[in-house]
Amino acid sequence: MHNAHPEGKGTLSHHAAEQSIPLLDITLGDALRQSAERFPERKALAWAVGDEIDSMTYRQFLAEAEQVAFWLLERAEPGDRISVWSRNSLEWALFELGCALAGMVVAAWNPGWTDPECEHALALAEPALVLAGQDTRGVCLLERTRQIAGPTRVFPLDDLRSLAKTARPTVLPQPQPSDLFLIQFTSGTTGRAKGAALSHYTVVNSARMRTRLFGADETDVWVNPSPLNHVGGAVSMLPGAVLTGSCYVVMNRFDAGEYLRLIRLCGATRIGGVPTVLLGLLEHPDWVPGQTTIRAIGAGGAQVPQPLVERLMREFDAPVLIPYGQSEFPVITSTRPGEDPRMLAETVGQVMPHVELKIVDITSGAIVPLGETGEIVIRGPLMMQGYYRAPEATAATIEPDGFLHTGDLGTLDERGYVRILGRIRDVIIRGGENIYPAEVEDALLLHPAVAGVAVVGIADEKWGQQVGAAVRLNKGHEAGPEALEAFLSTRLAHFKIPRKWLFVNSLPTNPTGKIVKFEVEKLFS
Fold first, then answer.
1. How would you classify residue 325: left for phi > 0, otherwise alpha for psi between -120 and 50, otherwise beta?
2. What's the number of CA atoms in the CB half-sphere (13 Å) around residue 349?
3. What is 428-523's CATH number, 3.50.50.60, 3.30.720.200, 3.20.20.70, 3.30.300.30?
4. In the chain, where are the structural domains located?
5. How far, CA to CA in Å, does 120 sit from each of 104, 194, 402?
6. Which of 58, 213, 375, 504, by CA, is between 20 and 30 Å from 453?
7. Which residues of the chain are modeled with pLDDT < 50?
């Protein structure tokens, strides 16, 4: 599995791809048709309506997704991008599969974005239509969307089912598995959102890897608040349920009490979330250990502490699974059922099938020996096609030989386990959201009182990490945390705004004048 060192000095950190799980050459629309044929009367989608749970079967799911496809085809062409700006909803699930059947491309916006962030995504993807729902607080986004995108191409997502009923049936196109299906927005170190271009083939088979390795089947019920604008929801959760013919339970947003209610009412077998979410379940007053039918718990998006792993396994009586992936390459590694809690806390498991992985020296690019730290680089058929309409960013991330730079520092051991040790790109992970310091720093430097700033991640029990900013003010200027947070609120999504502040006379720098981030981190301790 690992390559021998050419000079016989040990073993290199290189994991060759194994192919134990065959790949499927189908689109996501094909997957829905297959499940509707195999399990026409099995529940496909479930959602809360007040105190009751409503649902639809796979037969109904396919019929309604086809109606959405007909409606889309009356307003756009196959290959067009269609944007959606909303929290999770039943209509979103229908929209994603409707786009798949219509041969169109999903380009979702984060409901926490500010108007400038949406304007950038709009200019990049040039969507033919934008469907607007509600943000995570339940505030309607329709009017904001009309102001950003213009009124003629904006429609209310909440009305999608009734709108789709007006569409006349037509012959649906036949998209190919290699066709672009999802533009998954991510953030780069420059702070401007990039769109990872994922094909049907990548989406379908990434979901397949997860479900096959975890033993999921048609009897499962998935309850997971993972946002559908994130790769976890858009690639792993909803397509994973469709592929297996199991039930996907829609959660609008995370609320611990509602999560527990849905787990109980829907008979959930598979749940998941970032550590903050899972801890919220365990600490909710309605939580009673030993009264669920959970088969597996997915935890990721941040390091999962060993005590939390052990408590989850004990109180749910179910294995915990830790996956590692990116928007650019949705499935890279994962733990397997039955792993030791220490391994779950310290590693992100073993390399997934169809993934070739190397740990390379960040300066020379040479493969390092097993156990030594370097950048994780990966290659395989389930990676992005590139960054959408960003050839320079693509070339900077994907080598000519096809290896993708993850920007993550890690190690590989002799058993194929990967440990994540840090991030070259200084990413801060707050409650599962990736935050890049450069973006926050650029925004803060627009304030007239700010002369210099360094943004770092500060360890936080609840969120995993919190955003901290060390600020040097211009002489004669004053600005406190409240003023700076208010200034940033119109420029950055709420989760990117620093909540830990230090005001300093100078920032630590190296001889070339570059700010030394690990010295900044020490200032907060």
1. beta
2. 25
3. 3.30.300.30
4. 428-523
5. 20, 10, 28
6. 375
7. 1, 4-9, 188-190, 511-512
